[in-house]
Specification:
Blueprint (H helix, E strand, L loop, with lengths): L1 H36 L4 H12 L4 E2 H8 L3 H13 L3 E5 L7 E5 L1 H22 L4 H13 L5 H10 L11
Helix pairs in contact: 1-5, 2-3, 2-5, 3-4
Length: about 170
């Protein structure tokens, strides 16, 4: 009985991983099309989105951490976006060495256009689902219990797995 549950859980996880991968690839393709239409790169969109979604004025290093790129890459993106008139670099009032970022009016409009296209793409993917089905899916995903990090770490350290080995034959 327990083995059947583990096999079913493994099958479900494999299906979720495969679907998530397909969705991520499709979204990346949609994002590439959206940013191409706006004449910016996906990296610039992510950079601008981090600036726009922050509750405080970010420095370049803050954006680098937020989108997981090097400070040097973030600086190049910031300079490029400033030249394009999409962000404004401002010295920090307390520390003139720090440059803080803000989207310009044109930057906000460009980002809004790209995000609108991505939202439209997402809406197209879910248009066959009703509000009830979307809420149910969301509820069921939230109901999955998290695996405590200590449990995952202890399983890895012991070289064991929660699931029986897969039949590769």
């Amino acid at each position: 009985m327990l083995t059947q549950s583990l096999v079913a859980a493994r099958a479900l996880m494999s299906e979720i991983e495969a679907l998530a991968g397909q969705f991520a690839r499709a979204r990346a393709s949609a994002a590439a099309n959206a940013v191409a239409g706006a004449n910016i790169s996906e990296a610039k969109r992510r950079f601008m989105s981090a600036v726009a979604n922050s509750s405080y004025c970010l420095a370049i290093s803050d954006v680098a951490r937020a989108i997981r790129i090097s400070r040097q890459s973030a600086h190049r993106l910031a300079v490029s976006l400033e030249r394009a008139g999409l962000v404004r670099l401002m010295p920090n009032g307390d520390d003139q060495r720090l440059l803080q970022l803000a989207l310009t009016k044109n930057g906000r409009a460009t980002l809004a256009s790209v995000e609108e296209e991505l939202n439209f793409w997402l809406m197209q993917r879910f248009y066959t689902l009703g509000t009830r089905e979307i809420r149910e899916l969301s509820s069921r995903l939230r109901a999955l219990p998290p695996v405590p990090k200590s449990r995952v770490t202890s399983l890895r350290l012991r070289g064991t797995s929660m699931f029986p080995p897969r039949n590769r034959g």
